[in-house]
Design the sequence.
């Protein structure tokens, strides 16, 4: 079974840092591009960051560029998101998602999400 | 930047009805980059449709997608209680790499 499990969320003060992880299983992780997508409380979905099968291709949303860093460890089947200089606007559930390019470009599946709360 | 506008914001229907959800892009996009997701409260989004009209694995044929250019539609026939949720469209390409519509909430009338 294809599975993505996020961890690392929690409560952090404004200006602080947090590192999220996503453990992948049930598929050949190194062959898939991955993304982080977030959802603020009661709001819609916002794509955050993308990483290709290697680190040669990395992209960020403007809202996190320069503060967040996406990385992957293909040997450990894991995806990471280092988040620095956090503000209240970063409070959200963070999902990792596998990109599939069979007949399109889309996210399937998604992890269950990990909640990040930025508050004094 | 390609913006996606979904309408209506909320759709109130009864089980057994037919739902028609719209997603309009701010500029023409390839149908291949348009996807639809369903999200229920407390759950992660689930892929329904990719490439504008291709059902994802395990999605019943009551769900169908169509459209091209700037106008795309998700149609759900014979609504079941489990279908009431929030639906998002998504496109890929350009900058930012991915954008989502703001969502349509399908609620029981």
Sequence:
């Amino acid at each position: 079974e294809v599975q993505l499990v996020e961890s690392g969320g929690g409560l952090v003060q404004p200006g602080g840092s947090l590192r999220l992880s996503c453990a992948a299983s049930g598929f050949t992780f190194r062959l898939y591009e991955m993304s982080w997508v977030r959802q603020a409380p009661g709001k819609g979905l916002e794509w955050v960051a993308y990483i290709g099968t290697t680190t040669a291709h990395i992209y960020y949303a403007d809202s996190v560029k320069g503060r967040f860093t996406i990385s992957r460890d293909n040997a450990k089947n894991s995806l990471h998101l280092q988040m620095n200089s956090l503000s209240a606007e970063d409070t959200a559930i963070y999902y990792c998602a596998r990109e599939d390019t069979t007949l399109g470009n889309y996210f399937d599946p998604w992890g269950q999400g990990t909640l990040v709360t930025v508050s004094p | 930047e390609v913006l996606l506008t979904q309408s209506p914001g909320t759709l109130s229907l009864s089980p057994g009805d037919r739902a028609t959800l719209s997603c309009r892009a701010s500029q023409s996009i390839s149908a291949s980059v348009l996807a639809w997701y369903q999200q229920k409260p407390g759950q992660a989004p689930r892929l329904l449709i990719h490439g504008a009209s291709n059902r994802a694995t395990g999605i019943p044929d009551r769900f169908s997608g169509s459209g091209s250019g700037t106008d795309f539609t998700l149609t759900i026939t014979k609504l079941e209680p489990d279908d009431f949720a929030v639906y998002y469209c998504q496109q890929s390409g350009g900058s930012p790499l991915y954008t989502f519509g703001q969502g349509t909430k399908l609620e029981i009338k």
